Amino acid sequence: MNAFKQFIGTFIGIIVILFAGFEIPKRITVTISDSVNYRIFYKQSFFDKEDIKKGAYVMAELYSDVIKCSPCLIVKRVAGVSGDLIVSRDLDYFCNGEYLGKAKTHSMTGKPIERHKTNGLIPENTIFLMGDSADSFDSRYYGPMETKNVKAIARPIF
Predict the structure, then answer these.
(1) From the CB of residue 118, how many other CB atoms can be counted at a distance below 10 Å?
(2) Which end of the chain, N or C, is more open, meaning fewer C-beta atoms within 10 Å of its C-beta?
(3) What digits encode the pLDDT tens for the residues 41-85?
(4) Are strands 92-95 and 28-30 parallel, antiparallel or unpaired?
(5) Which residues sit opposite 77 in a β-bridge?
(6) Are residues 96 and 41 in the same domain?
(7) Which residues pair with 86 in a beta bridge?
(8) How far apart are the first and last CA of the chain?
(9) How many Cα atoms within 13 Å fall on the side-chain side of residue 96?
C-alpha cells in the first residue's frame, strides 16, 4: 500500500510539473525594449474593461507602418482613458493638465518621425498609451489606441 501511495504521489507531481511547464510560458511575457521600466510581466489574458485604467500596463496589438512588424505586440502604460483631455503643445503632451512627456522629432536611428497632434477628449473605447522611456514609440506618435486591441493586462513582476 505504501508503494502505491508513493506511485500516486509521484504521478501527480509529474502531472503538476508538466502542466506548469506548458502553462507558465503562456502567462509570462518578457520585453526586450527599454520603453518600459519593467522587463518581466504576468500576462492576464482574461480581464474586465475596468482593468484597463490609468497606470496599468497593457499588452496590445499595434498596427503601424513606422515599425517593421504589423501587428506588433507591445507593452505600454495607460496614461489616459476615454473622456480624459489630451493636449499637445509643441512637443509636450498633457493629460487633464498633467505632464506626460515630450515627443521627439527623430527616432533613435536618426530618421524624422511624425508625432500625433492631439488636442481633445480621448474617444470612447480608446486609451492613450505611454512608455516609461523618452525614446518609447507610443501614442505620442500613433495616437489613441482602441481598447479592442488590448490583448492582456501586463502585471509587472521584475
Answers:
(1) 20
(2) N
(3) 999 999 999 999 999 999 999 988 877 777 899 999 999 999 999
(4) unpaired
(5) 57, 130
(6) yes
(7) 95, 120
(8) 45
(9) 9
pLDDT at residue 136 greater than cutoff 80: yes
Q: Return the C-alpha cell found at 76.
A: 505600454
Block residue for cell numbers 493638465: 97
Q: Total structural domains in the chain?
A: 2
Residue 75 CA from chain centroid, whole number: 2
Q: How many whole angstroms separate alpha carbon 128 and alpha carbon 95?
A: 9
Candidates 4, 62, 53; CA nearest to 33 is 62
Mark whether 41 and 18 lie in a shared domain: no
What range defines the domain where residue 152 resides? Answer: 31-156
Q: What is the CATH number of the domain that holds 137?
A: 2.10.109.10
Q: Which three cell numbers stand for residue 42?
A: 504576468
Residues whose CB is less than 8 angstroms from the CB of residue 95 and which lie 6 or more positions away in sequence, other chains included: 79, 80, 84, 85, 86, 128
Report whether pLDDT(103) > 90: yes
For the beta carbon of residue 71, count every other beta carbon within 10 angstroms.
13
